[in-house]
Design goal:
The chain is of the alpha/beta class. Among the domains are: 22-198, 3-Layer(bba) Sandwich (FAD/NAD(P)-binding domain); 219-320, FAD/NAD(P)-binding domain, CATH 3.50.50; 344-487, no CATH class. The protein has 20 helices and 17 strands. The strands form four sheets. Strands 1, 2, 3, 6, 7, 8 and 9 form a seven-stranded mixed sheet that branches. A five-stranded parallel sheet has the order 10-17-11-12-13. β15 (301-306) and β16 form a beta hairpin. The radius of gyration is 31 Å and the shape is globular. The model has no long low-confidence stretch (mean pLDDT 87). Bound molecules: flavin-adenine dinucleotide (FAD). Flavin-adenine dinucleotide binds at residues 41-42, 47-50, 52, 87-93, 110-113, 117-119, 122, 128-131, 171-172, 199-201, 203, 242, 245, 330.
């Protein structure tokens, strides 16, 4: 077991691990499951100042373009109903306020602590990295590189001539729907508003260690001023950026600094933090205790269980920087659904997916049987004429009886029985797909029909429907009726559709999360899918082969790599054995693919994983 653990830790390298934080479920406009309550800033996923500020502008732009909101403002039933209530006065909430003021909305910002509270609580002189560097801000609050103090000065200076209605020290407890508006309940008052914008960041409750001594006065969950650790033995607990930044900040004045983290590697730290930390570890200013856990905090020491046993280290101050829990209780009180909470429709969609997989998998081996029932078609016209005939559906309904009849004739032997069993499973899966698919489609139009607009969400849903229909045509046409779309085999359309889907959703992902990391990662995935897994084998290699650019027909490339025009084999350059079997288990295996596949699986990929971790090959 120990050996297995070691192997997996090694395999993991510095690829991020850990639990996935759950965020409230939102649509592309930031609207939660409660219509009229929106989320902006950190809570939408990426914790960056610039993007938080931008989201404040975007939400008000969206309100401004929303006809329903315009109507509601016009028909408001009371003067005490605000147009917009913004919760949280961080960069996101403040920017939303600036924009709301420009549009003359009646609004208020409620803040549990003080304006820019999260930034105020950054460590003293904390360097500010205004990422993404190349992002052009449109919002009224500009974020620049600097340190915490310069950032706060700049932010306050930008607000100097803007009179924003911010109520500080007012914590919102829950939100209720009341007629045409919301009732926002704080610990002091109740406010009414047509729209609520939650800009509350991730500043929920700090996570607890749950160990004896955690409540000693020397244990903190944030660093206010590094000088408070002057001449002291410091222990920082955690492996995220805030833990690293705390250790870096106190290392200049503390007597000793130790970081204790329960995992073997840090959770994807910012590049600059990782560099600084490495340098300080080299200089002996910070000691790392990876794979260690706090057992107890005592007055003058801390007991930890480490890889090499239980240890007691001298200690005068502990910073537990193990993250914050999202304010889930608040969302629950306000009936806002969190991501991953499965509704009945989502569960049914999942069942549909399993049924579709059943049709594809079991239908594959029983294709001949089905075509013997329905007969081969000569053209698409034939196929469609058949599908829309009563005769076809009568045959379809009676198909199980037909199979049972074959059973009784004794035609079925042990070696061909699976074909009939598979046919049965495929048949019932298909019946399930038709019934459940029709119900879900009906439910979609019933629930979403009124919201169909030319926006991303509508495009996305209709893309899914179109792909499902097209897939059905390609699959059933090719497999059961022997007709192909535009003379291309099924595999051409599957890889084409897959590449198109990755391209569309990849572009959308980069638009929504335009960080350098996301852009590089997504473009890499798009290009790998589109070029070597689609365009090269389907277009480029056949073209080059035809032009004679791949050598003579009896040359190495056309006999060993692509024998008999099998350009599909080039998938094997990307997809290793056993991901891609066809190059090895095939009637025409060539020496090249045997050697290449062996080297790829047992030499190249292990080397890549050894050097960069498993994420380098798996994405
Ligand atoms: C230690 C640390 C270092 C960071 N360094 C960087 C960096 O260098 N560069 C960078 O780009 N980003 C950095 N970030 C991230 C950055 O701080 C956030 O992306 C940004 O503050 C998010 O803005 P926001 O408005 O969404 O939320 P926040 O700034 O967190 O504001 C949320 C506000 O809502 C208030 N609030 C919460 N709950 C309620 C409630 N129920 N009722 C009323 N008010 C409430 C809070 O008091 C807070 O003021 C860092 C974050 C931390 C913690």
């Amino acid at each position: 077991m120990e050996l297995l653990n070691k192997y997996f830790s090694w395999l993991q390298k510095d690829v991020p691990t850990g639990e996935v934080e759950k965020y409230p479920e939102i649509n592309q406009n930031g609207e939660t499951s409660v219509k009229g309550i929106f989320i902006i800033g950190d809570l939408t996923g990426i914790p960056l100042l610039k993007l938080a500020a931008e989201s404040g502008k975007k939400i008000i732009d969206y309100f401004e373009s929303n006809e329903e909101f315009k109507k509601q403002r016009f028909n408001k039933t009371g003067n005490d109903i605000l147009d917009v209530l913004i919760v949280g006065a961080g960069p996101a909430g403040i920017t939303a306020g600036i924009e709301a003021a420009k549009k003359n909305y009646s609004f208020k910002i409620l803040e549990a602590a003080k304006k820019f509270n999260t930034i105020v609580n950054f460590p003293k002189a904390k360097p500010i990295i205004a990422a993404p560097g190349d992002y052009q801000q449109q919002s009224g609050l500009i974020i620049n590189d600097g340190i915490k103090e310069s950032l706060l000065d700049e932010l306050n200076a930008q607000l100097k001539y803007i009179d924003l209605p911010i109520d500080e020290n007012e914590m919102v407890d829950k939100i209720e729907k009341e007629g045409d508006h919301f009732l926002v309940v704080t610990d002091e008052k109740k406010y009414k508003a047509l729209r609520v914008v939650l800009a509350i960041g991730k500043s929920g409750n700090s996570r607890q260690l749950g160990m004896p001594g955690e409540d000693l006065p020397k244990v903190f969950n944030r660093l206010i001023d590094p000088e408070e650790a002057h001449g002291l033995d410091v222990l920082v607990v955690g492996g995220g950026d805030s833990a690293l930044e705390t250790a870096i900040a106190v290392s200049s004045c503390a007597k000793s600094v130790t970081i204790s983290y329960r995992k073997p590697t840090f959770a994807r730290p910012k590049e600059k933090n990782a560099e600084k930390l490495d340098a300080l570890v080299q200089q002996g200013k910070i000691k790392l205790m990876m794979e260690s856990n706090i057992k107890e905090v005592k007055n003058d020491s801390v007991i930890l269980s480490a890889k090499d046993g239980v240890k007691e280290i001298p200690n005068s101050i502990v910073y537990t920087m193990i993250g914050k829990e999202l304010p889930t209780a608040f969302f629950k009180r306000s009936n806002i659904k969190m991501e991953g909470e499965l509704s009945l429709t989502v569960k049914l969609q999942f069942v549909l997916l399993i049924l579709v997989a059943g049709v594809i998998y079991f239908g594959k081996s029983s294709a001949e049987l089905f075509s013997s029932f329905f007969g081969k078609m000569n053209s698409w016209t034939d196929a469609f004429a058949n599908i829309f005939s009563i005769e076809f559906w009568a045959k379809f309904l009676l198909l199980p009886l037909g199979i049972i009849k074959i059973f009784s004739t004794g035609e079925i032997k042990i070696w061909n029985a699976t074909e009939y069993v598979n046919a049965f499973i495929a048949y019932f899966s298909l019946t399930g797909v038709i019934v459940l698919g029709s119900y879900l489609l009906y439910k979609f139009f019933k629930d979403y029909g009124s919201q169909i607009k030319p926006n991303w969400q509508t495009c996305k849903y209709f893309y899914f429907i179109a792909v499902a229909l097209f897939f059905a045509i390609v699959f059933f046409g090719g497999r059961y009726f022997g007709v192909e779309v535009l003379g291309k085999p099924q595999t051409f359309w599957y890889t084409g559709l897959y590449s198109l889907t990755i391209l569309i959703f990849g572009l959308r992902r980069m638009k929504m999360k335009p960080t350098r990391y996301i852009k590089i990662q997504t473009w890499t995935l798009i290009l790998i899918q589109a070029l070597p897994l689609f365009i090269f084998p389907e277009f480029l290699f056949p073209y080059l082969g035809k032009m004679g650019a791949l050598g003579t027909p009896d040359g190495f490339i056309l006999t060993q790599i692509f024998p008999n025009g099998s350009y599909w084999r080039s998938y094997g350059f990307i997809l290793a054995w056993p991901l891609f079997l066809s190059n090895i288990y095939n009637s025409s295996v060539t020496g090249f693919w045997l050697v290449f596949s062996f080297a790829q699986t047992f030499v190249f990929i292990p080397l890549i994983v050894y050097r960069w971790g498993k994420g380098a090959y798996c994405g």
